[in-house]
Amino acid sequence: MNTILPKSLLLLFLVVFISVSAQEKSITLEEITGGAFRTDYLGSLNSLNNGKEYSVQNYDRAAKESTIDVYDYKSGTKVRTLVSSNNLDGIDYIISYQFSEDESKLLLTTKLKQIYRHSSVGTYYVYDLKSKNLKLVSENQIQEPTFNNDGTKVAYGFENNLYIKNLLSETTKQITTDGVKNSIINGITDWVYEEEFAFVRAFDWNKTGDKIAYIRFDETKVPEYSMDIMGGSLYPSQQVFKYPKAGENNAEVSLHIYDLASEKTTDVDISGYENYYIPRIMWTEDASLLSVQLMNRHQNVLDLILVDASKNNSTSLLHKETDDAYVDVKDDLTFLNNNSFIWSSEKSGWNHLYHYDKDGKNEKQLTKGDWEVTRYYGFDAKSAMIYYQSTANRSINRDVYSVSIQGTRNTRLTKETGTNAAAFSTDFTYFINTFSNSTTPYVFTLNEAKSGKVIREIKNNEALQTKLKDYKISPKEYSAISINGNDLNMFTIKPLDFDENKEYPLFMYQYSGPGSQSVANRWGGGNDYWHQMLAQEGYIIVCVDGRGTGLKGRDFKKITQLELGKYEVEDQIAVAKKMGELPYIDANRIGIWGWSYGGFMSSNCLFQANDIFSMAIAVAPVSSWRFYDTIYTERYMQTPQENPSGYDNNSPISHVNNLEGDFLLVHGGADDNVHLQNTLRLTEALIQANKQFDWRIYPDKNHGIYGGKTRIHLYTKMTNFIRESLGEPTVALKEIKN
């Protein structure tokens, strides 16, 4: 029978058909791991001293040409090319670059070899922009080369010693001689400082370039950790490095100043202060005054001191920061021209900015409120304005703000709700804003610093947005869930065809580490696409930031002190139980997964709540904090000798007897961060408890577990495990009730 539809009904049918068919494509693992949804970024840029121009490193694949180009902020037009690899002998590709202070020279990075997460050795050249002369800094692969203030010298590390290359005389001076691998390091941090205090270059030039301050690490008493590298030869090779586990010896650190005129090194006596750690050194605006941050082993006392190099390295206490739990080390310390300084602190219960005079007196709190300053951008001396990022517009969002040095005229500069991050021009005339939220991939705009007004759009990801319209993409729903007396941030991803009359398996994701945030209004990465893929297969995805995570105040973050894995696990279990009470959640099919700290959490959740969770995936997990490093672990737990119950009561190894559901354990064989030892010890405990589980070890892969086909292999395994463990996704409620 032929039916003729009314024109209006036919139009409605077409609109519905088009909108549904437009989202027919399913996301695949091949696309996720193959970069099909890669976002475009704005290349790393340097604002030039004039504040009107910036430089960007570009690469022309067709011409195989690497260039450093200068652009005009306001118009975005290319002004000139500073250097091209096609005109440089011995350089095929410029990996990175840095200017001398007067912008007369460039330090060019070419060949790099990674050491750990943040450290590397490389081949470096100095390029004179006026003479077009190119000079090799060293025939050796060196670390952290850095110009002095006038660009006539470069200091660097090589084989645990410090050197200075004089660019005028082309001579090199070795200023330390006792460096020995796995014993003594001068001017470069050891593994644990690099990983947990997040810096590698442990030396600094003063403002006049006639002195270098540096930290010396004596690792003699630090126990060694060795990893067998299986690939590449008939017999395994060993990577051996100093790794202080919780409660063990750290490197003994000392502070020294080298004077270029006298060619002598003097020691700095810091015995009168907390001196177990030296997490930061930085010369002030006064060329004779060095600022040093010192901490005790518990990391709950921080002494900011001044060293006066003009007075035999005499020292004085400038500021003391204390906390019942721990003090975070940050990079917000800024000395102004008069040597007064800006500092951030949680002393009010929230992280805020403070201004002190040059003697550390006359404290003025610049920002206030039940929200956090999340990044300090800098101080503009002309306008006397400070620029920063904060969570004042809800903890899941970020905005850029300005405030006067008097703590007045606090102004929100970004208008779009989501995550905003700024890169300011040298003279604070402009900032380039990076914006995204859960539905908008990165948009880069040029903004006026004074008002925040958008001058022009630089780059967007509309092509990616258009592409994704063809895929089954569910909205990420943000909400709060009341758990254990707290309103916790939460996001939910439901299947696109969600039907409240059906029951769905629940798959939870979290990280949960101290001060972290997983529930944020920003564009996602690979895991978000994977979660979308799982949602379209019929799983509901939920993520909740429980107690101990960040950006909701000091007390919320530090409640987990001395008991990592207690309150965080309680919250995830309570979330799963509460979600299981919803009519559209199948309480018998709830799973959880996480990576690193998240793997520690997912293991604990399954082992401690086998009546709630039916499966868990733990990737690169800590199985006992006794196996992890000193600085991170003791910051939150003190030492195992002081707090044995805190270490053992919340360790997954202590709860293996309770495993009832399906458990997948994954680790990289060359993980220098969370050692394979964690998984092997947990595996042995599970075997001796006669518990069945599934596991994968990826040979010679580090904490990120990637390279070649590794990621697609891993995510295929995890996807299949979820399908097998949580079963067919949806079952009609009426069928269950009948």
Description:
This protein has 738 residues and is an alpha+beta fold. Among the domains are: 269-329, no CATH class; 332-460, TolB, C-terminal domain (Neuraminidase, 6 Propeller); 473-737, 3-Layer(aba) Sandwich (Rossmann fold), CATH 3.40.50. The protein is built from 13 helices and 44 strands. The strands form 10 sheets. Strands 36, 37, 38, 39, 40, 41, 42, 43 and 44 form a 9-stranded mixed beta sheet that branches. Strand 26 (352-356) and strand 27 form a beta hairpin. Helix 7 crosses helix 8. The two termini are 37 Å apart.
What name goes with the CATH superfamily of the domain at 473-737? Alpha/Beta hydrolase fold, catalytic domain
**Helix content percent band:** 10-25%
Low-confidence stretches: 1-21
The overall pLDDT, averaged over residues, is: 94
CATH class of the domain at 473-737: Alpha Beta
Tell me what the CATH architecture of the domain at 473-737 is. Answer: 3-Layer(aba) Sandwich
The best one-word shape is globular
Tell me the total number of β-strands.
44
User: Which structural class do you get from the secondary structure elements?
Assistant: alpha+beta
Radius of gyration: 28 Å
How would you sum up the major sheet? 9 strands, mixed
Counting H and I runs of at least 4 residues, what is the number of helices? Answer: 13
**CATH fold call of the domain at 473-737:** Rossmann fold
Instruction: Tell me the span between the first and last alpha carbons.
Output: 37 Å
Percent of residues in beta strands: 35-45%
